[in-house]
Amino acid sequence: MPLPSFPQQGGCQCGAVRYELTEPPLGVYNCHCTDCQKMTGAAFGISMPVKTSAFRHLAGELTFYEKVADSGRHVRLVACAKCGTRVWNDPVAAPDMKVVRPGTLDDPSWAVPVGNVWTSSRMPWVEIDPDMVNFEAQPPSREPLYEAWAALHAGEK
Ligand SMILES: [Zn+2]
Ligand SMILES: [Zn+2]
């Protein structure tokens, strides 16, 4: 699935919160940590780190919830004040980055995951593709995931 042209927009379920990505993300991967399972109410979350400089909040009142992740890092979860959809996270230690939830994109079809993190706590029926970039817990660095994403899209315009 090739990358679309940018900017790309997205938003919450009720439509109040809107955002825009002016550049492609750094990567897309699945997170099977127990926090993501709780917060999504699903088997895993999907993380899409983007540079803060490539992200614009266009509209909608936000609410914030700060938590300590399984990794020990502090994360601020950003949600729509009206419908409660969690749209992106602000990693407190990395203000140059935002982690957007690709399911909130208007067109999420191109945001194909290249890896899996926290596979040790995946739901037992979830099959992990061994050809993807996988980590049993928090990866020491996201670079291998970013490299896999870059390799997947190498040669596109
Ligand atoms: Zn909303
Ligand atoms: Zn997670």
Briefly say what this structure is.
The protein contains two helices and eleven strands; from the N terminus they run βββαββββββββα.
Provide an overview of this structure.
The protein is mainly β and 157 residues long. It has one domain: glutathione-dependent formaldehyde- activating enzyme (gfa) (Alpha-Beta Complex), CATH 3.90.1590. The protein contains 2 helices and 11 strands; from the N terminus they run βββαββββββββα. It has an 8-stranded mixed sheet. A 3-stranded antiparallel sheet has the order 1-2-5, with no helix packed on it. The longest helix has 10 residues, at 143-152. It is globular. 31% of the residues are buried. The mean pLDDT is 95. One zinc ion is lined by residues 12-14, 16-17, 80, 82-83, 85.
Structural class: mainly beta
Low-confidence stretches: none
Distance between the termini: 13 Å
The helix tally amounts to 2
Percent of residues in beta strands?
Answer: 25-35%
Name the helix and strand elements from N-terminus to C-terminus, one letter apiece.
EEEHEEEEEEEEH
Q: How is the CATH topology named?
A: glutathione-dependent formaldehyde- activating enzyme (gfa)
Query: How many E strands?
Result: 11
What's the Cα radius of gyration? 15 Å
Morphology: globular
